[in-house]
Amino acid sequence: MAKTKQASATPKQRGKSSKSQINELIDALNEDLAREYQAIIAYTVYSNVLTGAQWMKIASELQKHASEELAHAMMIADQIDYLGGKPTATPKPVKLSDKAEEMIRFDLDNETETIRNYRQRIKQAEAIGHYALAEQLRKIVAEEQDHQHDLATALGVDVPRVFEDGA
Ligand SMILES: [Fe+2]
Ligand SMILES: [Fe+2]
Questions:
Q1: What is the C-alpha separation between 137 and 75, in angstroms, rounded?
Q2: Secondary structure of residue 162 in the 3-state scheme
Q3: I need a labelling partner for 53 at 20 to 30 A (CA). Which of 70, 88, 117, 137 fits?
Q4: What local confidence, expressed as pLDDT, does residue 162 receive?
């Protein structure tokens, strides 16, 4: 009964964040920033090349997504700077297709990947006690989930699950 697992004590002891934890977080945030740039480009292009009456509603939603992704990029770049890092200037590659449905599928896959990553980033931010970043990331995740929902609805598919690894 007196036996307590050693592991249970460790998370609370992370009062001071190690330099390597911060560097890891900076690198990961730069990956997030590159994904935000990718999203800005994809939504700007796709919203203009989508044709056909069935895609008009989602095309106007994509325009709104583009400006929200820009706000996310600004926030992430600001946080990278605050942590002592240098914001990247390179986006992740943007896939193109002649088919509207494929473009929206690319977006949906990217949003799912983005959400998965931000959920991990929230954990990293909390591990070093950077609660303000964790708070901002939560707001971003809520918007990414709206994007994911819009895209899944346009495609007529279920919203991909991202909750397997816990909230
Ligand atoms: Fe975003
Ligand atoms: Fe998004």
A1: 9
A2: coil
A3: 70
A4: 79
pLDDT digits (tens, 9 = 90+) for 49-101: 998 899 999 999 999 999 999 999 999 999 999 999 999 999 999 999 999 99
Give dist(CA 125, CA 111) in Å, integer.
Answer: 20
Domains of the chain listed by start with CATH number: 18-155 (1.20.1260.10)
Q: What is the pLDDT of residue 164?
A: 65
Number of C-beta neighbours around residue 32 at 10 A: 23
Query: What one-character DSSP code corresponds to residue 128?
Result: T
Name the amino acid, one letter, at 101.
Answer: E
Contacts 24+ apart (CB under 8 A), 44-49: 45/94, 45/96, 46/103, 46/104, 46/107, 49/103
68 C-alpha vs ligand 1 centroid, how far in Å? 7
Q: In this structure, what token pair is assigned to residue 80?
A: 């990278």
Q: What's the gap in Å between 69 CA and the centre of ligand 1?
A: 4
DSSP 8-state symbol, 16:
S
Task: Count CA within 13 A, CB hemisphere, residue 152.
Answer: 15
